[in-house]
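Tokens help. One example:
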Amino acid sequence: MKQLRFGATLFGAVVLAAAIVSAQGAPATPAQGGAPGQGGGRPGGGGGGGAQAAPLQNLQVLPKDMPRAQVIPIMQQFEAALQVDCGHCHVWTGAGLPTNDYAADVKPAKKVAREMLKMVMAANTQFVGPAIQANMTRPAMQVSCAMCHRGKTTPVVETYPVPGAPAGGARPGGAPAGAPAPGGAPAPGRQ
């Protein structure tokens, strides 16, 4: 089961990495500031991004000249990794509506997404690429949003037992959690 989960995570990471790499030379999406009414590359959202499409506004992490057709798949990867829609980060009232304002920076989630994207890009260029790839005989797995978020807006952090740690929540030194500390004083946090 762990291999299946790892394989699915690896596949998601590769897809996101490919979208980011390919996006570094293709059209951008309204999700990063397209003109109102230009849609987001979703059904009913316009998103064709042809020669008539207005240039995207307020791209800060992705290249400012990135074409709409390249930004849309990146935004769709964010949606899939967090299981949200455009409105999570953008002023978005519905697909293709003129009231959508992808360029606005009013939602805190958009600012967080920019910082997270910087972190992912740095991890993939500084660590996954040179450091890990030099010691591997196969292509390195790329870091992606889905690796931590796993379909949630807040990253999912699983806890695992520490190898060699005492069972049952015992404190270091072997005393069980909640037992009196040496000298008869109650354990910290217990009265």
Q: What stands out?
A: Confidence is low (pLDDT under 50) at residues 1-51.
